[in-house]
């Protein structure tokens, strides 16, 4: 049996990671949909809830791996739904800070166990 070239092994590993990511995203979206959010919505809520403070949009973008424009649209929708609020950034008048509302904090608390259960089920070996 011939050995797999190193490059091919890397490609296969990469494709396996992509497949796992896609499967987890689908499962998260399906599980969270019952609560009116998708995986990307949850990621933004989770970042904002982590330290219970406001974040600059650029800080959120670096953590949720969405383009600036996609994140801006997502934040605008979450704001319309009353889950987050935007405010001016005292350090930079051009900047925007985003924080959870009480409704967003409550929703995050409701869906956090759902998201963690999907991660535990899909990422636990065995």
From TrEMBL:
Start and end residues of each HTH marR-type domain: 1-126
Pfam families, alphabetized: MarR_2
CDD domains: HTH_ARSR
The keyword DNA-binding belongs to this UniProt entry's keyword annotation: yes
Keywords: DNA-binding, Transcription, Transcription regulation
Recorded GO MF terms: DNA binding; DNA-binding transcription factor activity
Protein name: DNA-binding MarR family transcriptional regulator
Organism placement in taxonomy: Bacteria, Bacillati, Actinomycetota, Actinomycetes, Kitasatosporales
């Amino acid at each position: 049996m011939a050995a797999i070239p190193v490059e091919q092994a890397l490609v296969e590993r990469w494709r396996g990671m992509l497949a796992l990511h896609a499967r987890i995203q689908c499962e998260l979206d399906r599980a969270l949909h019952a609560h009116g959010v998708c995986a990307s919505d949850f990621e933004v809520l989770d970042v904002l809830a982590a330290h219970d403070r406001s974040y600059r949009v650029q800080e959120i973008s670096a953590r949720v791996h969405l383009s600036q424009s996609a994140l801006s649209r997502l934040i605008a929708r979450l704001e319309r739904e009353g889950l987050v609020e935007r405010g001016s950034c005292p350090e930079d008048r051009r900047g925007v800070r985003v924080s959870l509302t009480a409704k967003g904090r409550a929703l995050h608390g409701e869906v956090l166990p759902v998201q963690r259960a999907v991660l535990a089920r899909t990422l636990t070996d065995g």
